[in-house]
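Hey, can you fold this one?
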Amino acid sequence: MRTFPIFFVLFLVIPIIEIFFLIKVGEVIGAFPTIILVVLTAVIGAGLLRQQGLSTLARFQQNLSTGKIPAQEMVEGILLAVGGALLMTPGFVTDTIGFLCLLPFSRKFIAANVIKRSSAKFTAGISGGFSGGMGGGFGGSNGGFYNDTHKASEHDVVEGEYKEVNEDPVVISPSKKTDT
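Sure. Predicted structure:
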């Protein structure tokens, strides 16, 4: 992904659009009411951020306690942070995007789409890793657990079971025979 177009939009295009809308709204309702409106959206956004953040945190903790992975809540938490930052930025366009990130119905929709898109990319990235492959195991042509793009490292976790046996070993030396 190219970062130049993203920064170009973030630091040049969006502020120009914000200034345009602030001027147009100021022409219609006046400068002072426009300033009050911008401050009011920031105050409402801060209250909404607090309330929605606590709600998302409660769902996060509930999912953790039941053993579910709180992926939806983690993405929603990021959206809440982005939405809060956008609402603190003066302007109507950033406020609109910020409120979309804070309102539960739109935030859940955005989060679900982010999860769906990222899981599709993740699944496409490992699709050869767990297929039946030529080796007959979980891997690809090498027949191992991992595909060729993933090499085992010290950070990989392998789960299993073991049984510890606390018996003294019997040593038989070649020169002596012992009865056991």
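Confidence is low (pLDDT under 50) at residues 129-149. Let me know if you want another pass with a different chain boundary.
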